[in-house]
From TrEMBL:
UniProt-recorded name of the protein: Uncharacterized protein
Superkingdom, taxonomy of origin: Bacteria
Species per Swiss-Prot/TrEMBL record: Borborobacter arsenicus
Amino acid sequence: MTDRPILFSAPMVRALLDGRKTQTRRVIDFPGIEKVLEFVSVATDQQGRRVYEMKDAAGEFVTRPAGKHFAEYQFWPKYAVGDRLWVREAWAPLDALTHSDPGVQALADRGFYRADDSTVEGEISRWRPGIHMPRWASRLTLNVTDVRVQRVQVIGEADAVAEGAIVPSKTGPHYTALDAPFGKRRVGTSAYNLFRQVWNDINAARGFGWEANPWVVAVTFAVERRNIDQVRP
């Protein structure tokens, strides 16, 4: 079991808080990944290193130990069942407040979270990017229950909903893509198709669009609304 930080945008933090998000997909990228046709298995060698077997374009099996040469790429899942992930998000410490009344919740949290929209313009002098959030400031812990390596297009309807950006309608057989980037809001009858569009909004510009069908690590988790170092009640 390993504790690791994981970064989420404000819309995805809201989905975690609402209980809508129990999966995340992260692109796997390393030199030569385009030659891989099939992921086969993960094992552990005698030194305790992860060994990843995959089938390349020539139909041969290739073994890639996570040793010195390949570790720098972090090319394969750094997540495993049993890991705990502490969520990083945009935030501000109490001393970033421009007046002297932070409120009860902020005092309890020892800061402010941008995803909450609990402040108005000008109240916070400077928001800190989530990448710089310290462990003590995290308020969400994700307990990893499943890890899969697959192409992004393998995702099904249920998994698309579990990603948190696609919400089933309460009044009819359709879905809404909430909090999509760039202010877009979409409605459709297929969670799969809506996820495809949201995926492209986020990833196409950096070369990992839907048509490229990149390899991803699909992580399933249970969400706990507490700091990773806080004792369970």
